[in-house]
Amino acid sequence: MPKTMISSFYCNSYDQASVDETVFKTIEPLGVLDLIKPGSKILIKPNLLSDRLPEEAITTHPSVVKAVIKIVKSKGAVVAIGDSPGNVLKGMENVWNKTGMASVAAEENIKLLSFETSGIREIAINHPTVKSITLAQAIFDFDFIINVPKLKTHTLMGLTCGVKNFYGCVPGIRKIEYHKMAPSPYDFGLLLAEIYGALKDKILFTVIDGIQGLEGNGPSTKGIKRNYNMICAGTDAVALDTFITHCMEKKHKNNFFIKILKNYGNTDYDNFNFTGYGPAKFNFENVKLPITRILNMIPVKLARLAGKYIGRFLWIKPVIEQDKCVKCGQCVKSCPAKTIIRKDNGIIYINKENCISCFCCHELCGYKAIDIEESLLARLFVRLNKKKK
Questions:
Q1: What pLDDT, on a 0 to 100 scale, did the predictor assign at position 323?
Q2: Which pLDDT belongs to residue 78?
Q3: What average pLDDT is seen over the chain?
Q4: Phi/psi of residue 2, each to 5°?
Q5: Average pLDDT rounded to a whole number, residues 252-257
Q6: Range of the domain at 111
Q7: CB-CB contact of 6 with 30 (8 Å)
Q8: Same domain for 139 and 42
Q9: How far is 225 from 257, CA to CA, in rounded Å?
Q10: 30-32-33-34 Cα dihedral, nearest 10 degrees
């Protein structure tokens, strides 16, 4: 099997000139830019989780998106930015403006494409509980997709990076329904892999914004901002996710999501061809992983058995911090299980009995009002894991 190229370079600033230079020298060794012809239609897919400012390190930084756009436009291509954020019910214009994408689009004279208004395409997939997936039709109108994700930890999946960024290709509130249909991290991981597989042939390359990202209980406001000082690129998003997981965990082969992805790309770290800098150059020392990670390490069959018989004692769930809650109701709207309830007096609470621990509410709350709590047995698992380290 030919080796998969991973191109990664050091960058510790979002200064546009510095980012332009680093992004180009990261992409250029991949040998794919000549595939872009004059008139080629290129979709840039950033991670626009919600209406957050670039300096919060929650969404792909506009300087990285702009650098990619300038490279693609120099080849004579027609470019657009497209996404479907998790909190799209608040309005897409707000997301474009807060994340800096509106400014980039104006400066580069390109279109912003909301996947909610572009039509849909239903695609059959191979999944135990989800028989087909709805994707935005507009994606298929482009010759290529360039994936520009943000490097962040994630409470449900452990990491959100190259592969998971394509969940934003599912338009609107359908994302909530799929969380309900595939509630466990393993089943949701299978769903993400199938989405990636459906789009794989259209993906020209992936560029990871890892200059700043999140650690801890990401991918939103409860995550901790961290300078990773990295721009990373490759044509195989699975390989890139394997590389980043290796940087964070070292024992990446035990990661449940990497095991799922081995059928969709290269997860053999020893079969990567590195150009630029290796992992030691970047800031991954003692990265704080999500508190939920320990439960994701339980074998799938045992986890399902636990969910059926000892779920009352082994759980990690979101909890609303009432002193921080502004009662906006975003969590109520985003809950797949409809287990977040607003009382007559306006107070919002989570019915833990029906909670499926998808952490959609935790992900989309913009006020840091949703924390994570563990059962006594879960805390015991966490402590045992720390002792092993």
A1: 96
A2: 98
A3: 91
A4: -65, 150
A5: 84
A6: 4-281
A7: no
A8: yes
A9: 23
A10: 130
**Three-state SS for 208?**
strand
Cα atoms in the Cβ-side hemisphere of radius 13 Å centred on 173: 11
Length of the chain: 389
Residue 363 CB burial class (10 angstroms; 0-12, 13-18, ≥19): buried
pLDDT higher than threshold 90 for residue 214: yes
Task: Say which CATH number the domain at 122 has.
Answer: 3.40.50.11440
> Would you list the DSSP string of 40-87?
-EEEEEE---SS--GGGTSS--HHHHHHHHHHHHTTT-EEEEEE--TT
Residue 355 and residue 209 share a domain: no
pTM: 0.93
The token pair at 199 is 């789009």
Give the C-alpha separation, 241 to 257, whole Å. Answer: 9
Please tell me the total count of domains within the chain. Answer: 2
365: domain CATH number is: 3.30.70.20
Contact 355, 345 (CB under 8 A): no
Residue 317 is assigned to a structural domain of this protein: yes
Of the pLDDT bands very low, low, confident and very high (cuts 50, 70, 90), residue 128 is: very high
User: By three-state DSSP, how is residue 161 classified?
Assistant: coil
Residues 58 and 207 in one domain: yes
- Give the contacts of 147 (CB within 8 A, at least 6 positions apart): 45, 162, 165, 166, 203, 205, 206, 207, 237
For helices 92-99 and 101-108, angle between their N-to-C axes, nearest 10 degrees: 80
Q: What is the pLDDT of residues 138-171, one digit of tens each?
A: 999 999 999 999 999 999 999 999 999 999 999 9
Determine the pLDDT at residue 379. Answer: 74
Side chain identity at residue 36, one-letter code: I
Q: What stretches of 243-303 adopt beta strand conformation (E)?
A: 272-276
Structure tokens at 243: 């590389």
Phi, psi at residue 356, to the nearest 5°? -100, 5
Which pair of tokens denotes residue 149?
A: 């994700």
CA distance 293 to 289: 7
Q: Do 290 and 217 contact (CB within 8 A), yes or no? A: yes
Per-residue pLDDT at 307 exceeds 80 = no
Buried b / exposed e over 54-66, threshold 16 CB at 10 Å, is bebbbbbbbbbbb
